[in-house]
Design a protein that fits this description.
- The protein contains seven helices and 13 strands.
- It has 242 residues and is α/β, with parallel strands linked by helices.
- It has two domains: 5-71, Hypothetical PUA domain-like, domain 1 (Ribosomal Protein L25, Chain P); 79-237, 3-Layer(aba) Sandwich (Alpha/beta knot).
- The strands form two sheets. Strands 6, 7, 8, 9, 10, 11, 12 and 13 form an eight-stranded parallel β-sheet that branches. Strands 1-3-4-5-2 form a five-stranded mixed β-sheet.
- α2 packs across α3 and α2 (88-100) runs parallel beside α7.
- It is elongated.
Length: 242
């Protein structure tokens, strides 16, 4: 049986008893059918992964006791994903796959052709937590509030290269672009909305020296597919797949 993993954003130490939040109680009791005395893994990016025991579990309350560390803190990729929000199912897929592929931060942005203008930040963060618990990473990606693309660009750290994935554009292939960069270069990716980036968006992006454009093959990819494909290329060439 696969060991249950639970993300707890608190310091983990041997012998520490931690009260669970309501949604965690529901998850353990009603979804996974856990019982008092069951063992599980607790984790976060600051403490690593720890073996723990389920100390108490009722309809509304629960607690765990931390036993011992089983995995220390390890370095993880520092790559960001900027994306225009999609419909709920597609956004869920994108965040899930971005989490599995090691993204550190997710930055939703509005562009000219974006179709979704509001997000439920709490729900998007829960998608990241759920995916992190399943894929055995230690950290959970940070999901930032929705902002206009122009505002994000104006506040951008110019030391981090922003790679914009485009369709039907005469630009360098993504693999070639990644291979030509110094390995110490910090990176982020931008994926446009379902209708793609507009000419206005592209003109805005072109004005910034930290922006690079790339193409991703001869086929038109859905936005969520493009995000997963770009991140897979990154991990295979520069990330922790090697």
């Amino acid at each position: 049986m696969t060991m249950v993993r639970l993300y707890l954003d608190t310091q983990l130490d041997t012998g520490k008893e931690i009260s669970l939040q309501e949604h965690q109680v529901h998850y353990l009791r009603n979804v996974l059918r856990c019982r008092v005395g069951d063992q599980l893994h607790l984790f976060n990016a600051h403490s690593g992964e720890w073996l723990a025991k389920l100390e108490g579990l009722t309809k509304s309350q629960g607690s765990v006791v931390v036993l011992e560390q089983i995995r220390p803190v390890t370095a993880e990729p520092d790559v960001d994903l900027l994306f225009a929000p999609l419909k709920q199912e597609a956004t869920h897929y994108m965040i899930e796959k971005a989490t599995e592929l090691g993204v550190a931060r997710l930055l939703p942005v509005t562009t000219e052709f974006v179709q979704v203008h509001k997000i439920n930040l709490e729900k998007l963060n829960r998608y990241g937590v759920d995916a992190a618990q399943q894929c055995e990473r230690l950290s959970v990606p940070e999901v930032l509030p929705l902002r206009p693309l122009q505002g994000v660009l104006q506040a951008w750290n110019s030391n981090k290269l922003l790679i914009v994935c485009l369709e039907r554009q005469d630009s360098v292939p993504l693999v070639q672009l990644l291979q030509g960069l110094d390995r110490s270069q910090q990176l982020a990716f931008l994926i446009g909305p379902e209708g793609g980036l507009s000419g206005k968006d592209i003109k805005t992006l072109t004005a910034y020296p930290f922006v690079r454009f790339c193409k991703m093959g001869p086929r038109i990819l859905r936005a969520e597919t493009a995000a997963a494909a770009a991140l897979a290329c990154y991990q295979s060439l520069r990330g922790d797949w090697q």
